[in-house]
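From the methods appendix. Each design record in this collection lists the tokenized structure first, followed by the designed amino acid sequence. Records were kept in a plain field format so they could be parsed without special tools. The example shown here is representative of the layout used throughout.

RECORD:
FOLD TOKENS (372 positions):
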């Protein structure tokens, strides 16, 4: 298996790194964190102008066709710089529409993403279940359309979202539906997350919606797979950025006349971080490979859950260790490394925590007859 990026993905990585390094400064991050929407709209426009927002889309929709691989490269760079942008929900939602939507749905959603003037978001989580593919929100057919009822929790980045992709239960399995944010029966209750992002709980009461694909055909599962891999990519970047902060801090900080980096106990902590991050990268690349053609659903589901578990468990362990080796500075909420800690905590519980990931993975392995 070849885990090298190739020229196109390296170009995406290098351009994204340059833009994030220039724009996502500590001063700018503090400014955005106190804004109403908690989204750096200037940086979003810069990424749109550079063509990075649409690089993941198929060529038929005006993109570069880089798909999930391109998405993960972009998201790792975002994570390293903890840049406040709704990239993972917007781009995974757009990929779902591009893959399963009608021509009218693609025309409604994708052009605004391409020019940076609008974006979708996704409503995948609920308070009553940790499995995004076992929603309690229901969808009932209504002529050519559908009606949705239920409560979706912690919908990311509602500010600026022109469309919401909602998972809901139907008689033929989980379906994926497109909902207007101001449709009848919609109510938003805004809530700040651990990472200072603004989310919202979305209540749907007999809300009109359009099906994306045919309910039960796998559109919802595709979105959840891509969202899980996207979160793993962001977390890999967050953990790597945190480790770089720690390395720089420990080289410069001295205790008993020696740099802290020379103390064995500290070296062991950073070695554990490095091992976790490498495991996160390897399992992430494996998951991206499993999502490519030729596609095998069972293999893809297992690889995605392994990558997500490593991101959840290894990422959380890394940001904890990094904060610990910073000592008292690490708990200063204005110190840069604290953002990595908060992002790591938030991502580790999104779409279910480590325990939920292992439970789903165990069920998959048992169902497939795979022996340990």
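DESIGN:
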């Amino acid at each position: 298996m070849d885990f090298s990026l190739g020229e196109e993905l390296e170009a995406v990585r290098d351009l994204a790194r340059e833009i994030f390094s220039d724009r996502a400064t500590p001063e700018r991050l503090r400014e955005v964190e106190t804004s109403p929407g908690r989204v750096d709209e200037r940086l979003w426009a810069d990424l749109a102008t550079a063509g990075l927002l649409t690089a993941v889309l198929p060529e038929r929709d005006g993109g570069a066709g880089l798909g999930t691989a391109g998405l993960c490269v972009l998201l790792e760079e975002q994570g390293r710089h903890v840049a406040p942008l709704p990239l993972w929900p917007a781009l995974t939602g757009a990929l779902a529409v591009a893959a399963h939507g009608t021509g009218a749905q693609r025309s409604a959603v994708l052009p605004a993403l391409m020019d940076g003037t609008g974006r979708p978001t996704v409503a995948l989580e609920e308070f009553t279940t940790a499995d995004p593919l076992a929603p309690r929100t229901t969808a009932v057919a209504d002529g050519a359309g559908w009606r949705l009822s239920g409560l979706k929790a912690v919908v990311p980045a509602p500010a600026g979202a022109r469309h919401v992709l909602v998972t809901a239960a139907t008689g033929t399995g989980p379906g994926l539906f497109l909902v207007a944010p101001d449709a009848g029966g919609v109510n938003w209750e805004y809530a700040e997350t651990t990472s200072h992002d603004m989310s919202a709980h979305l209540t749907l009461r007999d809300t009109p919606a359009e099906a994306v694909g045919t309910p039960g055909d796998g559109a919802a599962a595709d979105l959840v797979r891509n969202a899980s891999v996207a979160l793993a990519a962001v977390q890999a970047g967050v953990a790597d950025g945190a480790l770089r902060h720690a390395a720089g801090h420990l080289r410069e900080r001295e205790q008993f006349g020696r740099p802290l980096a020379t103390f064995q106990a500290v070296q062991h902590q950073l070695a554990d971080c490095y091992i976790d991050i490498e495991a996160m990268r390897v399992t992430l690349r494996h998951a991206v490979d499993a999502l490519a053609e030729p596609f095998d659903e069972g293999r893809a589901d297992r690889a995605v859950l392994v990558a997500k578990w490593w991101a959840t468990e290894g990422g959380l362990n890394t940001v904890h260790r990094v904060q610990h080796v910073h000592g008292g500075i690490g708990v200063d909420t204005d110190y840069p490394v604290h953002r990595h800690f908060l992002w790591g905590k938030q991502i580790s519980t999104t779409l279910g925590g480590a325990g939920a990931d292992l439970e789903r993975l165990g069920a998959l392995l048992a169902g497939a007859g795979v022996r340990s």
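APPENDIX NOTE: The mean pLDDT is 93.
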